[in-house]
Amino acid sequence: MGTAQTPYDAVLHAARDVAELDNALDAERLGAALLGSVYAVAEARRDDAVRAFVSDFLAATSRRRAAAATTIRSVFAALVPDAPGADRVRPGAAAPAWSGQLGRVHLTGCWAYGDVFGDQTSYLATFAYDDPTGGPEHALVALVDHNIGITKDIFVGGPPARVLDQIRQMCAEDELTWFRDETPAAMHTEVSRHLAVTDELSELPGEGSLATDRALVGARLALLPASRAAATRQRAEPLTATERTDLIRRFLAAPEATQVGLDTLDDDQLASLHFCLGLLLDHTATFTDPDPLRWSPTVAGLFLLDWVHRRAVLDMDDAALLPRVLRGWAAYAGRKRGLSASATARTNTAIDEMVPEFARLYTTGERRSPATAAVAQLLADGVDPDDPAALDAWIEANRHHLTDEGS
């Protein structure tokens, strides 16, 4: 075959054997993989890009009568039924016997599992075709990363009994994981809303089958019920100023604060203490679902080794106190969330191991943002940020340097 003249010709060539496949599931997986190429290269609104491509493909191939062409049209219409024109697609005269089963599946089970810290939740659903000619039962697994706020990976495969057994065994052998039955509505809501964020990413996570399985996962998720409350769920709001104050007061009265010596600080250290506590709350407020009590080795690492260096200017007292405050807060948060002693100890150990690198990053300033670096230099030069005249004079004197840093 010569060079394809259009993307639609390229798709038709790639799908030339689709009518010879054994079942509808194989055809749907092939169709999803082809649409995955569109999803992967889209620069924004990836799901919309796929929907638009399917609509344009159906319009461009409406007169094609070859079995492969009519079959892949039916596959795309089943995978993206809301694409304009999908409702007008009809099977061709030479359609495979299984073509009537495209997309006609029902849910056979739904579960969720994840780590006790709340970093990640995976959802597992199993499906079977309404008629066995459609293909084998299969599993959908979607990984939601709560620290990034996206559906990080998805995959469709099987056999589902083996997938389910492997996951059950993994969770049974690891005390830091959990496994439960899940409601289909909860899975639909959580995977879909985080997947909507993934669809907007300028760059997708590098590993996994996110692109190749996206269309098939979307079609299966659409079959799950969604409660009215779930459909109107809004992003959790960060704490109000009053709530922050109350939470800090409760922490300082808790045994975890005493265990790290926060009750013995002198008056000169109290300002640093409250500054550090404010940073902890500010960091957790940046997550998709803000929770000031959700701390883990991973969250502690994001905070100590990245976020705080980019977002805050610490003096020596702050830097010396911050790891200690974090240890106490993480222990307090673990108790309030009902984590086991071993889980809390895991976070505490991780914080201890991060301290040398935290100190190095504080010393070098290599992860400071340009704005944070400028504020740090301003303070190092003895300029009072609350003195407008002194601030203007400093900015004017350092204008060239600030411009270079920001470029």
How is this structure best described in words?
- The structure is a single chain.
- The protein contains 17 helices and five strands.
- By secondary structure, the protein is an alpha+beta fold.
- It has a five-stranded antiparallel β-sheet, with helices on both faces.
- The longest helix has 24 residues.
- The radius of gyration is 27 Å and the shape is elongated.
User: Could you name the ranges where pLDDT drops below 50 across 5 or more consecutive residues?
Assistant: none
Q: How much beta, percentage-wise?
A: 5-15%
Tally of helical runs? 17
Report Rg. 27 Å
Class based on secondary structure composition and strand pairing:
alpha+beta
> What's the arrangement of strands in the largest beta sheet?
4-3-2-1-5
Spell the H/E element sequence.
HHHHEEEEHEHHHHHHHHHHHH
The best one-word shape is elongated
Total strands: 5
The major β-sheet equals: 5 strands, antiparallel
Number of domains: 4
Give the distance, in angstroms, between the N- and C-terminal Cα atoms. Answer: 49 Å
Specify the helix fraction band: 55-70%
Q: Mean pLDDT, nearest integer?
A: 90
Task: Quickly describe the structure.
This protein is of the alpha+beta class and 407 residues long.
What is the topological layout?
Blueprint: H1 7-14, H2 24-41, H3 46-60, H4 67-79, E1 105-115, E2 120-129, E3 138-145, E4 150-157, H5 160-173, E5 177-181, H6 184-199, H7 210-221, H8 228-231, H9 241-252, H10 255-259, H11 267-284, H12 297-311, H13 316-337, H14 341-364, H15 370-380, H16 388-397, H17 399-406
Antiparallel strand pairs: 1-2, 1-5, 2-3, 3-4
